[in-house]
């Protein structure tokens, strides 16, 4: 299944200032074959998830995100909206 990432650019800039991590780097945590994802909480009717994954074999990231599937011309696509990392 293909995966798409999205985020709020203002939130991404804030995260980069606070934590020194860009959401482009946070995306790579999902490429870790040993990444672990768990449901975190429901906020505003939206299920929030946390994924823990390693980036470049030296950085472990906890990424807060939402997750859903969309149909794109007969192809199911997983959409990840990153909230923080």
UniProtKB/TrEMBL annotation:
InterPro entries, sorted:
BrnT_sf (IPR038573), BrnT_toxin (IPR007460)
Identify one Pfam family in the record.
BrnT_toxin
* Name of this protein: BrnT family toxin
Q: Which organism is it from?
A: Nitrospirillum iridis
